[in-house]
Design brief:
The complex is a heterodimer. Chain A is α/β, with parallel strands linked by helices. Chain A has 21 helices and 15 strands. Classes of the chains: A alpha/beta, B alpha/beta. Chains A and B meet through helix 4, helix 5 and helix 7 of A and loops of B. Chain B: It holds the Pfam family AAA_21.
């Protein structure tokens, strides 16, 4: 990021936000919320005031740190963390106050326990003093994603550091699987009065400013219970496609010719996303959720679907490693249809594949046979290389493929269970961010906060929750293509599961 | 910041110390005999909390020169400076101290938040500073972090503090103020020609601050402190130093230099400083030492001050709650606060403060016994010096006038409880104190009493013959200044039988029995106070020492031998020939 000195208007806005704290700031997507946050931290730092900045994702942390650097904020003047990593630090330091004892390295599956414990730590008098002594301001970004558990933790910190600013956009509040979200009206505004900012569409500058303006206007229409009809809206580069057939989706997806530009293809459920990606023949890579649920199922096995049970990864030397690899490859790759039941059944019975001939993928069959007779993780890696060597075979679950194999390769080295190594691989991803792919197939939940040149909504009927729809639309800088049997939908908020 | 607990292991003369510092006293005056570890305690605090990035440690700094047992200095700190309580310092490294002084892993709401600072030196001689938690986790504690402890020590190497150098407090204050770097370097350059031509307002101002503070500490001595050019250390080139008029402060007496150094270091440390001062009276007249003590007691800029003293005046003038005695037994050091001390101890402190500076204390019945013991100690010391053996001063012996027989066992027991070796030296005519005597003896006090029913005069007279009694009466005449007075004293006991001669033999010839004569003289000496002042007692003691080989004084000398054995404890077993000394009167006769 090139250095951007704050202009006077931004400085003044940042200063008045600091003066207004405790406050909450609601800003639509792409209108410079993070920019304002960074400016406020920078303005505070100019006055020798330190800030604690919390957000949800490591990507968010990186983005904020980059902006702070560009504003020349000395690193000592702001501590930028994810909510859970700060919670972990507190719980790790004060297990008695937290009421839980945690291991040296975090297990993010236990995030909620960390945050609950951290709320108790932050409420202790001595630690409230630590917060109060350490920080003059607290900023929490993407507050709409805070669950009630997060909210209790942040409230405890805000009790110690009253000058707390919460930033977010309730229209982007997408319910994950982590518990009920804090409500803007019920939880935020009573203690953190609204600080009004005139939204200026920043993201679309030099791309499609009309789209940006429209996305601001359309917010008031994206309300639970209202009907929304795309045909009533005319915006440059908003394209409506009513043919929902796979060939139509493929035509749309393959129409983007400029490979310097990024395209995001969205659908509602994970299996729908994977279906698109496989039908698109690997040209779109499936984005996995941060915990890598799909890969964990591959490694641990999953019997929740009796028709399609997922076998767990066997240890080296155990029979069934070849059978497992065949299953894993078929789940991540398109073009291995000929690894059909006869092949799989032989592997299941640990019978030789010699004599079976499969045109085009014979090297894979040979590699599976080798893996069957020599069941080592090294041999598995060799088989994976054979899969990749065949030109008509395409990996569409690229992230799952690479991370699972990386975990298995680590196990070949250190002898530890692959699932533990997988945790390390994903932890690295948390810290370093995802490999960027120009073509991504994903769900709204996973792309919050990210930007793409083009967005394709693969099936409008899956986007009836106005918040999902808004997040989907607002990811695009240049164009939005909506595919749907009907362009008119009844908007309805998803209800959190009890 | 304050130290609430201090642990020392294997540092110099201290094998172990675990000291819970009084939480309600800002000033702590450590008293006790020499070599009990007082100065080592101050050095340990300074090493642990001072901001030097390295400390000079050698093999001899290890207890018993045994480098295999690491030196550990550990302090529990409360009122932690904000800079260290930040989350990027030790905000996540706090511990909890409960009301009973017990440490807990986490600072819970009914605890005082505390920080455990630790200095460890092992055989590599590499000092390591850490902050620890109860579970043993530790984190490095840097020199710049220790700077926030604002802890400094005033000692004899204080001349650096009177100069502007990169590391001195003056230099750091000037740099901290900003902009003075230039003045400093300009001044140094100007020093090549003449400092007088360069006027630095801020340096002058700082010098004025030093003057004001030094004067308020020490009672007004300086009138014109200013920066000046110090060329005394020609090998190091000329530098800036503090001057009083035309005299560099480095040329002042020790006391003045220490006062100025204290003022400067406190200015540099800022408020809430922790100061340690070894031998607070060093170089100061008693009134200035007391003035300094009161200043330290009252100055809010200090959060804790720990000093040592060897000055009875300081012991006497300090608040009793500020005093703490230090005792060492084979390197195991104990510190006992006198806060809440018994009545007896308070009287000990008032009447004879130096007792608290001694290792072995004899509480004597009264002035007579006090004087008598002084004479004995003089005589014994003279003999022992001739033999090349230790003296009573070397043994750290103090004699305290108990101001009455009933006080002796009580004061002795109170001192014994503090760890002092104590003997009581008293009459044996008052049965009401027997219970107290027994109680004192059960706590390890040595009680030396005359034969049952005797006071000092009657014990001396008990076995004298007529010649001996006459000599004793002659001593009485010396103390009473006139024969007629003594005649009057003797007559007053039985006016029906007036005494006309000071030669007791004439009484015997006239029909008085020897026992009657002994009794009459002893009662007269006692009633008419022949030996009631310390000097009289001393004369009596000299008299006894003169005649100590006479069998007639055997019982008296036996008691003094007991005292001798207490004053000069048995030497180490290796010198077995000497162990008989105390029990054989002829050996020192």
């Amino acid at each position: 990021m090139t250095p951007q000195p704050m202009d006077d208007a931004l400085k003044a806005l940042a200063a008045s936000l600091l003066a207004a704290a405790p406050a909450s700031v609601e800003m639509p997507a792409g209108t410079g919320k993070t920019h304002l946050l960074a400016a406020a931290v920078a303005t505070a730092a100019d006055d020798s005031k330190r800030s604690l900045v919390l957000t949800h994702t490591n990507a968010g942390v990186d983005a904020i740190r980059k902006r702070l650097r560009s504003f020349g904020v000395p690193s000592g003047m702001a501590r930028v963390e994810t909510i859970t990593s700060w919670a972990f630090s507190l719980v790790r330091a004060y297990p008695h106050l937290a009421g839980i004892v945690v291991a040296e390295t975090p297990d993010w599956a236990l995030s909620d326990q960390y945050v609950e414990g951290a709320a108790r730590v932050a409420a202790a008098t001595a630690i409230a003093e630590v917060h109060a002594t350490s920080f003059d301001y607290v900023f929490v970004d993407e507050y709409q994603d805070c669950t009630l558990v997060h909210h209790a933790f942040i409230t405890a910190i805000a009790d110690a550091v009253p000058r707390t600013v919460l930033l977010g956009d309730r229209l982007q509040a997408i319910f994950g699987f982590t518990g009920a979200l804090a409500e803007w009206d019920a939880h935020v505004l009573p203690s953190f009065p609204a600080f009004a900012v005139e939204p200026i569409p920043q993201r679309w500058r030099g791309h499609n400013e009309a789209l940006g303006t429209w996305l601001l206007q359309v917010r008031s229409h994206l309300v639970d219970g209202l009907d929304f009809d795309f045909t009533e809206h005319s915006v440059p580069h908003l394209t409506l496609v009513t043919d929902t057939s796979p060939t139509s989706v493929a035509a749309v997806a393959h129409a983007f010719r400029d490979f310097g530009e990024t395209v995001l293809l969205l659908d509602g459920a994970a299996w729908r996303v994977a279906g698109h990606a496989s039908r698109l023949n690997g040209s779109y890579a499936v984005m996995e959720d941060i915990n890598g649920r799909f890969m964990r199922d591959q490694i641990n096995g999953n019997c929740s679907s009796p028709q399609h049970p997922v076998l767990p990864l066997p240890a080296p030397g155990e029979p069934g490693l070849a059978r497992w690899f065949a299953q894993f490859a078929k789940a991540c790759v398109i073009g291995l249809g000929d690894l059909n039941n006869p092949v799989l059944q032989r592997l299941e019975r640990n019978q030789s594949l010699t004599g079976l001939s499969r045109d085009g993928i014979q090297p894979v069959v040979n590699a599976l046979e080798q893996l069957r007779s020599t069941a080592t993780y090294e041999q598995l890696a060799a088989a994976a290389r054979e899969v990749r060597a065949i030109s008509q075979v395409k990996v569409y679950r690229w992230e799952a493929w690479a991370d699972t194999l990386a975990a298995i390769a680590l196990s070949a080295e250190n002898g530890e269970p692959a699932i533990d190594n997988f945790g390390r691989v994903r932890e690295r991803l948390r810290r370093q961010g995802r490999k960027s792919h120009a073509r991504i197939a994903s769900r709204t939940l996973l792309v919050k906060g990210l930007e793409y040149d083009h967005v394709v909504i693969a099936d409008l009927s899956q986007f009836r929750d106005p918040r999902h729809l808004y997040v989907a639309l607002s990811r695009a800088r240049k164009s939005v293509t909506v595919i749907g049997g009907s362009m008119r939908i009844r908007l309805q908020n998803d209800r959190p599961r009890a | 910041m304050r130290v609430r607990r201090l642990e020392i292991k294997n540092f110099r003369g201290i094998k172990s110390l675990d000291w819970a510092l009084p939480s309600d006293q800002r000033l702590i005056v450590l008293v006790g005999p020499g070599d009990s570890g007082k100065s080592t305690i101050l050095e340990a605090i300074h090493y642990l909390l001072g901001d030097r990035w390295n400390i000079p440690v050698s093999d001899t700094d290890f207890y018993g020169v045994d480098v295999s047992s690491p030196i550990v200095v550990k302090a529990v700190l409360v009122d932690i400076p904000d800079a260290l309580r930040k989350e990027n310092a030790f905000g996540l490294w706090l511990s909890g101290l409960d009301a009973e002084g017990v440490l807990h892993q986490d600072p819970e709401d009914d605890h005082t938040p505390a920080m455990i600072a630790c200095l460890t030196v092992d055989e590599t001689l590499e000092p390591k500073w850490t902050v620890e938690r109860v579970d043993g986790q530790s984190q490095v504690l840097t020199s710049s972090q220790r700077h926030h402890f604002s802890t400094f020590k005033v000692d004899d190497r204080n001349d650096t503090q009177l100069r502007w150098t990169r590391t001195s407090a003056l230099g750091r204050m000037s740099v901290r103020d900003g902009g003075d770097r230039q003045a400093l370097s300009a001044a140094s350059r100007a020093a090549q020609q003449a400092l007088a031509s360069h006027e630095s307002a801020s340096l002058t101002e700082l010098a004025a601050q030093v003057q004001a503070r030094a004067n308020s500490i020490g009672g007004g001595q300086f009138t014109d402190i200013k920066p000046g050019l110090d060329t005394s250390r020609s090998s190091m080139g000329a530098g800036l130093a503090l001057y009083e008029d035309v005299v560099p402060l480095t040329s002042f007496g020790l006391g003045s230099r220490r006062l100025a150094s204290l003022a400067i270091q406190q200015l540099a440390a800022g408020s809430r400083a922790v100061a340690v001062v070894d031998e607070i009276e060093d170089g100061l007249e008693p009134h200035r030492a007391v003035r300094l003590l009161n200043y330290l007691l009252a100055d809010d800029d200090y959060s804790q001050v720990v000093v040592t003293t060897h000055s009875p005046v300081v012991v006497e003038q300090a608040q009793i709650a500020n005093l703490a005695t230090v005792q060492s037994h084979d390197g195991v050091v104990t510190i006992t606060s006198l806060a809440g001390a018994s009545e007896e101890l308070q009287r000990v402190r008032r009447s004879r403060p130096s007792s608290l500076l001694a290792r072995r204390v004899i509480v004597a019945e009264g002035k007579t016994e006090h004087g008598l013991l002084m004479a004995c100690l003089d005589a014994w010391d003279t003999e022992r010096i001739a033999d090349g053996r230790s003296t009573s001063a070397g043994e750290g012996v103090a004699v305290q006038d108990g101001q009455g027989g009933s006080e002796v066992p009580r004061r002795a027991a109170a001192l014994s409880a503090l760890g002092y070796a104590v003997a009581g030296f008293m009459d044996n005519e008052d049965r009401s104190v027997d219970a107290a005597v027994e109680a004192a003896e059960s706590t390890g006090v040595t009680i030396v009493r005359w034969d049952t029913g005797h006071n000092i005069e009657s014990q001396i007279c008990a076995n004298l013959n007529a010649n001996g009694l006459t000599k004793f009466v002659e001593l009485g005449v010396e103390r009473r200044a006139a024969e007629s007075t003594v005649l009057d004293d003797l007559t007053s006991i039985d006016s029906a039988n007036p005494i006309t001669s000071l030669d007791v033999q004439t009484w015997i010839s006239a029909g008085t029995t020897l026992d009657e004569a002994r009794d009459r003289i002893a009662v007269a000496a006692n009633k008419r106070k022949w030996f009631k002042e310390v000097d009289d007692g001393r004369a009596l003691g000299e008299w006894i020492m003169q005649y100590r080989t006479r069998t007639a004084l055997r019982e008296v000398v036996r008691r003094l031998d007991d005292i001798y054995a207490f004053v000069y404890p048995q030497p180490l077993p290796i010198e077995t020939e000497d162990t008989e000394v105390g029990s054989d009167p002829s050996a020192h006769g």
